[in-house]
Specification:
The complex is a heterodimer of chains A (114) and B (115). Chain A contains no helices and twelve strands. Chain A is mainly β and 114 residues long. In chain A, the strands form three sheets. In chain A, strands 2, 5, 6, 10, 11 and 12 form a six-stranded mixed β-sheet that branches. In chain A, a hairpin with a 5-residue loop joins strand 7 and strand 8. Chain A is globular. The mean pLDDT of chain A is 93. Chain B is 0% helix and 46% strand. Chain B contains no helices and ten strands. In chain B, the strands form two sheets. In chain B, strands 2, 4, 5, 8, 9 and 10 form a six-stranded mixed β-sheet that branches. In chain B, a hairpin with a 5-residue loop joins strand 4 and strand 5. Classes of the chains: A mainly beta (114), B mainly beta (115). Chains A and B meet through strand 6, strand 10 and strand 11 of A and strand 4, strand 5 and strand 9 of B.
């Protein structure tokens, strides 16, 4: 069975601070990895995803994530956060052999102070 | 174009009653997913439909939960004899292909409260 662990439940930053949200997964096979974001009052939406190729992937709004296979990690980063990045962030994984079944982490709430 | 829609947006019911939650996926999307999000927790996979294939029901928590997808489009999640622990936000998503790296597009969810 696959599982996803997000290390931080709530992160509070000031504007212009750098962000790194941790995500580790547990699964022995090949995976697809995702970060989704839910802004206040909005639907969950895709931030970025990795399935092959360059392990450093770039998403919308200046976010990026790096897949480190040896560490089973897919951490999300942004060099300088803005107040508008305040949201809940979810890491998700699905296995190539059962790609319809995604496992999500518990989410990290990011609060950016203006 | 229109996104994924769900109805009702909120549902309050009494313990023991049955409820039906509806999902209208994005037109043309062949894959449809149901998730449950309890307070302070992540999304819990419930069921996945892909085209005409048999659905993956492995996430349904009990036999009180069932779902169907008619005509490859609209889906209904039914919870029979609701319990208080069924209270959660039920999210539906759709994608253009069979899961994998395809992006899932989420609806606004149905917030279910069982009294």
């Amino acid at each position: 069975a696959q599982s996803v662990s997000q290390h931080n439940h709530h992160v509070i930053l000031s504007e212009a601070a750098s962000l790194e949200l941790g995500c580790n997964y547990s699964y022995g096979g090949t995976v697809n990895l995702f970060w989704y974001v839910q802004y206040p009052g909005q639907h969950l939406q895709l931030l970025l995803k990795y399935f092959s190729g360059d392990p450093l992937v770039k998403g919308i709004k200046g976010f990026e994530a790096e897949f480190i296979k040896s560490k089973f990690s897919f951490n999300l980063r942004k060099p300088s956060v803005q107040w508008s990045d305040t949201a809940e962030y979810f890491c998700a994984v699905n296995a190539r052999t059962n790609a319809g079944k995604s496992t999500f982490g518990d989410g990290t709430t990011l609060t950016v102070k203006p | 174009g229109a996104g994924v829609s769900q109805s009702p947006s909120n549902k309050v019911t009494e313990k023991g009653k049955d409820v039906e939650l509806r999902c209208d996926p994005i037109s043309g999307h062949t894959a449809l997913y149901w998730y449950r999000q309890s307070l302070g927790q992540g999304l819990e996979f419930l069921i996945y439909f892909q085209g005409n294939s048999a659905p993956d029901k492995s996430g349904l928590p009990s036999d009180r939960f069932s779902a169907e997808r008619t005509g490859g489009s609209v889906s209904t999640l039914t919870i029979q004899r609701t319990q208080q622990e069924d209270s959660a936000v039920y999210l539906c998503a759709s994608s253009s292909a069979s899961g994998g790296p395809e992006t899932q597009y989420f609806g606004p969810g149905t917030r279910l409260l069982v009294l």
